Design the sequence.
């Protein structure tokens, strides 16, 4: 008999632990498995997409940036070499520019969760200032 894993509950525990270890008063993940963490200038939203077996981390970098072809090429090149685990993405409805990390939920432990949150927060904190100078 296979063990059923409640991914939302597990990530909720990780989220709570992350806040406690940093003396942050984080509201718990909501019923949909969504929460957010402010790290520096970056607001990281965490989405447990249990039906898809995926953890999605997002941080908005710019609201509807004007991106010509040259800027898009710079972003794509940076996404390949300078964003660590994260990648740039445009929100399909709003046109806002985000950094995002997707990770399967299977095998995810707290240390990797913590590393992913730090990775996207540091990268977003760097790029939200740099994006205006592209």
Sequence:
């Amino acid at each position: 008999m296979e063990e059923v894993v409640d991914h939302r509950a597990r990530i909720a525990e990780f989220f709570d632990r992350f806040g406690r270890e940093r003396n942050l008063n984080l509201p718990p993940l909501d019923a949909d498995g969504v929460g957010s963490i402010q790290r520096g200038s970056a607001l990281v939203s965490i989405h447990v997409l249990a039906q898809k077996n995926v953890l999605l981390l997002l941080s908005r970098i710019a609201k509807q940036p004007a991106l010509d072809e040259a800027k898009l090429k710079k972003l794509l090149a940076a996404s390949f070499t300078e964003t660590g685990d994260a990648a740039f993405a445009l929100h399909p409805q709003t046109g806002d520019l985000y950094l995002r990390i997707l990770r399967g939920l299977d095998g995810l432990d707290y240390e990797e969760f913590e590393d992913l949150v730090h990775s996207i927060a540091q990268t977003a904190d760097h790029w939200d200032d740099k994006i205006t100078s592209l």
Q: What stands out?
A: The first strand starts at residue 34 and ends at 39.
